[in-house]
Here is the input.
Amino acid sequence: MNNKKFKILAVPYIVWMLIFTIIPLALILVFAFTDRNAEGFRFTFDNIQFAARYLPVLIKSVYFATVATIICLVVAYPLAYIMSKMRLNHQRTMVMLVMLPMWMNFLLRTYAWMSILETNSGFLNRFLSIFNIGPVHIMYTQAAVILGMVYNYIPYMILPLYTIMIKIDNRLIEAAQDLGCNTYSVFRKVIIPLSFPGITSGITMTFVPAVSTFVISQLLGGPKNNLIGDLIESHFVSGGEYNPYYGSAISLLLMVVVFICIGIFNQFDNEEMEETLK
Amino acid sequence: MENNVIVSLKDIVVKYDGEQVLKNISLDIHDKEFITLLGPSGCGKTTTLRIIGGFVTPDSGEVFFDGKKINDIPPYKRQVNTVFQKYALFPHLNVYENIAFGLRLKKVPEKEINTRVLEMLELVNLSSFGRRNVDYLSGGQQQRVAIARALINHPRMLLLDEPLGALDLQLRKEMQIELKKIQQALKITFIYVTHDQEEALTMSDRVVVMNGGIINQIGTPQDIYNEPVNAFVAKFIGESNIIHGIMHADYDVEFASKRFKCLDKGFNKMELVDVVIRPEDITVCAPTDETINGTVETVTFKGVHYEIIVDSFGFKWKIHSTKSAKQGDFIGMNFTPDDIHIMKKSDSSPKFNMISGEATVNE
Here is the structure.
């Protein structure tokens, strides 16, 4: 009886999922395998074959996203740990600061990066020129794209890590020290294994949006650094390449790749976990 | 008792946010003894333990271990292990791996680890639990794992921070006996922190009674119980009647408007003192001129004994007796000079009201 009542509460979400997730997914699937000509819709593998030509772009996207995710993890992990050890009111301020950039539109923030990184008149090079250094060419390079990704997605790495780390009981750290751990082995034997769930969700939450990044890559990386996200976008916006059939096929390909990546990562993750248990 | 001092604290001061939680503590701990730090919460007992464990650095004062100053030695370099309050077992490791933790850090060969872990599991009666997840253990079992995890490192000294606090009474009693057995079998020093006076008296070779950041009394359980140094110790260790008195001379004390012989001396003439008489030392008798007399107010059955509250000129006397009394009866109270304990006045003395029998504060 009670159970039934609670199930009713799930209905809005189920409806939402149906309309905005399941149906679009089904549409992508349909579009990816159909074509339209004078006789109407017909089943075809042409779109997928077409999409497969963009495999290098896909690989590049995965590579960029992987590098960005690793950088995020390396930067965010110590930060999240330090945050978790701060006094409570300082912790709140830090969480605010981490989330603050998310309050501004990401396009605006990306344009800001452009004016910082510009080779000739950017803030960075003007600053460096004071010391007679530079100009450094970051704008329109892979580095600029990865920087943009790290900057945009790092909150999604920090927050899950921080949430897990504040739950680690300080007594466990003391117990580890008591049993002979120095600072390094406290991390290796206790803090890292206990923060594994945070690492896993942080990586997932960073990698998945990073691999489908678009606009950031165009603005900071220029045309030669177009990523799979840009490609999909270009097939859906009306203009030169408008073709939702191809666009859907590329999307589908991307989804499959993401699934495989997450699958591999989880596999690796489980093994790692078992390794640290020893 | 061995008189080798293993740990020595000298004039230790610890402040938290400007407030002194330990005020000049000095304490010698002997090798292989079972010593208990006893006191109410906030008295500084846990802080004292954490200084020895290396988790708190004193603001001033010195800590010696085996004669060497260890103020700045981090916990992992000390020959001391701790059983933490609420155990602090590693949730990502099973029972076996929790116990093996310290040995793995020392890179002990796998074969030896195995032998020693199995040995420990046997010591704490958990032989078949090695593969268990620690979250699925009962409180008592987790407790044993925590003890095994500490003892496997062969520490010179084991620190126990209220280890039985979370267990139910029956289990607590069993564990008290077990802990004492383990301590005697391994012949190492145990420093035990508790607020439970009964626990302290049951297990300890020596008890350190602390209050408000200072040590009130150090002694054997018998000493502490029979000769409390002040009203606080008397109140904290067991139940007692504390009444104002005057020392007329050595062995001669006045309280409740009567003169009594006692075994105490060395006070100033006519010095105001606290007089302590344990409830179980008082026997009910017929009222005479020599006894303190009063009316039985309540009688409560406590299992082993009756608790009788007697009102004598406003002072409520507590008596523990195996014989009941009748409510409203006018009775006398009898005790021997040996049962009278005289203590100097201190901060924890009952609020002064009147010197005679009309002093009204009990307990």
About this structure: The longest helix of chain A spans residues 244-277. Chain A has one domain: 57-277.
